[in-house]
# Entry
Amino acid sequence: MRTLSVVTANDQQIPDEVPDEAAAEVAALRGQIEHHNRLYHQLDAPEIPDADYDALVRQLNELEALFPSLVTADSPTQTVGGPRSATFAPVVHRVPMMSLDNAMDRAELQAWGERLERRLVAEEGDDHPQVEFVCELKIDGVAISITYVDGVMVQAATRGDGRVGEDVTENVRSLTGLPDRLTGDVPARIEIRGEVYMPIATFDALNERQEEAGLRRYVNPRNTAAGSLRQKDAAVTASRGLHLWCYQMGELEGGPSFERHADTFDYIASLGLPVNPEIRTLSGLDDVEAFCRHWQEHRHDLPYEIDGVVVKVDDLARRQRLGVTSKAPRWAIAFKFPPEERSTTLIDIEVSIGRTGKATPFAVLDPVFVGGSTVGLATLHNQIQVAAKDVRPGDTVIVRKAGDVIPEVVGPVLAERPDDLPVWTFPTDCPRCGGPLVRLDGEGHHFCTNLDCPAQRTGRIEHFGSRGAMDIEGLGEQRVQLFVDMGLISDIGDLYSFDFDQLLGRDGFGATSVENLRAAIDASRDRPLANLLVGLNIGHLGPTGARALADGLGHLDAIEAASVDEIAAIDGIGPTIAQSVTEFFASERNQVVVAKLRAAGLNLEGPAAPEVPQVLAGMSIVVTGTLEGHSREEAELAITSRGGTSPGSVSKRTTAVVVGEGPGASKLTKATDLGVPILDEAGFEHLLATGELPAAESPAESPPT
# Structure
């Protein structure tokens, strides 16, 4: 045990002795952090999520704050990044690439602001200094330094340990949108700092190819971008579709001078370099907090991943006065969003059976808080992915939950796997009915082939009452299961004839509750034919195909009687859907169910052909955000009924993008990049009425704010 003199810091007593346990814990934490630094920075193969790594660093910080004598110059709390790889030549940064301190919540952001204000008061003598901040999205990518001399790219390097990085010049030349030669007012020398990232669509397409090849999916866009950037073969990097956002200048020689950070972005963009459009200059931390909250809620509207907001003092002279610590500037902080990846224990792997009989393996987890909620279950997709990921009950696994996306198990932490942990094998029998589970040719999933399987039966009934189908309020999973167990219903046709009085007196079923359910089921009789077709659970037939089928043949009787060729001839219906529809109505079992629905008086007639001028024939109109005069469905119907199409994404063939409140940023960005006209609601009404773009509209120059 080492002895220290007693000192006071921030009104707290620092212990005068360092327990052996504390010194051992500090040493253990440093060993773990250095191990993970090597995996992350050198091998691009992290074992644990960022949030778990951050937790280790915070534990070390807290111990070093409590026992200052344990702080060493080479501690991970005092250094930046990690060791560089020997694969690439070393590059010494002329201006060190520092790290950023983190604020994990509002209180920590406010505490940083208060420290900032105290320093400015001491430096400037003003008791209430007014501070402007530049807020930038914290791109979840790889930090890069790119140097241009006389406008020509001469070198690109990773951050490395902040002082020495890796030469990845040839790989960086392949980045989408990054010029080899600058334009405009070119300086003698400029070093640009930026973040290399992989767009989400590119990452998803890459994983689709992995799945098709029976290979394990990549973990996340950040790690995949890092691995792609640091390939020995620059052609591999070029094939991965990496992008870059530039966020500051490391050094500038022979160029203009600046007083504010915000002004540098216009200059960087004028040189032909990509600058993120969501950068904002704000006055005071209240506005900064609002900006952070907005992007925490809308982070998944973007076509790339972010994990926070970087907040910087705008005034460059003030930055000089505020200075830096050993590893981070005092004038900047990263506000981190709640983590979307955490590690936890995989307790078991079970299999669920859906309404189509599809057998889906899922993970039973030791509950963990991730992506804004506590997660206890997560999908494992299918047998192929369980085998590719090689996750086993008893493993420590990484769990990912992004926004409203279903949580999934990314993979195991192999370093923590117990010895002799057995491989999990897919069951051969259905866990609900005991029937065989069969993997059909060309399918990645197993299926229970027993149509009387109770899981399929309740799933079909629940789907029938769902919002996208017959929209029967109060007909959820638990109630459906209860009604089936009571023998009140065995298929969707029984919903319109069972004895509601048998429910009275049961827990949760008073007179009002039963009457509300009866009224909801009665109201569903008048739903459009397209909703009924969706509710019938016909394979491959979704809402769009159901509307096309209802519009094309006009009545359920006509659909039942139609041949495969007649159905396939309908615009929007292909041979696969046509075959599935005819097979559905040829089934005696399904004919019995449809007869019950017909006897119950459901609406079997489709909409009359609209008498609307086809002024949008050949046009493709994308709608994003909320319109005042139209729901999303009404806007799409207004377009399609006039002969146009309303796809969900922007392309070179898009005629215009209609923007309401809360639009998707990715659609606006792509429209801007492609020069597609952007219309407000008034412009949309003009287009619907005349088939022409408003005279004032032209290809967009910048997305609206």
In short: Confidence is low (pLDDT under 50) at residues 1-14, 697-705. The two ends are 60 Å apart (CA to CA). The first strand starts at residue 2 and ends at 3.
